[in-house]
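Question (not urgent): is this output format expected?
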Amino acid sequence: MEVLSLRILFLLCCIFAMSECRGACAEVDSDTEAVAGKGFKLGCISCKRRSEVEATATVEWYFRPKGEADFVHIYTYNEEGPIIEHDDFMDRLDWNGSKRSQDIQDGSIYLLNVTFNDTGTYRCFFNRILFYANYEYSTVISKVVQLSVVAKATRGTASIVSEVMMYVSIIGLQVWLLIEMIYCYRKISAAGEEALREAANAEYLAIASESKENCAGVQVGE
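Got this back:
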């Protein structure tokens, strides 16, 4: 029964480690080169440092065209859904971030039918509220994307670096999962060995006690 319980505990530990790995967040920089006439993902990821803390977040995007001084508000995503804030981007922006959760960590959007006028600086803001036991903590995090629009696709350095970092993050998470499983296995194995030793000692003491009582009974009989 104890061995079965330890096996169940090991299985639960592995499931927990896998769920943590799937829920892990990696901050990857956005691509910075779009092709005219096609779609483009404006990436914006802000990972929550403490996954166990409940939180909510809203995301806002701003755009400053090349050669201009001021940013204009172009997009908002909150608990009510997406809102396109600027006429130049009407029907051209789609939400491409976290779904079915108010705890947004991926605030990416997808820009449709890219034009050369979309060249410029994009900035996204995460307005996050963290809920602790006795108080709430508000924080604002911003990310910047410098977008250039070209007539024909080229393999930019930023794109290569982003892809490499993505694969490094995936490998790192897999290594972490393996280490977590090995740790669980060793811990549960040690607990199992200890339980077996205790059971053996208890059995030995019971046999010794029974033998002693039998000897005493024989002596009384004589």
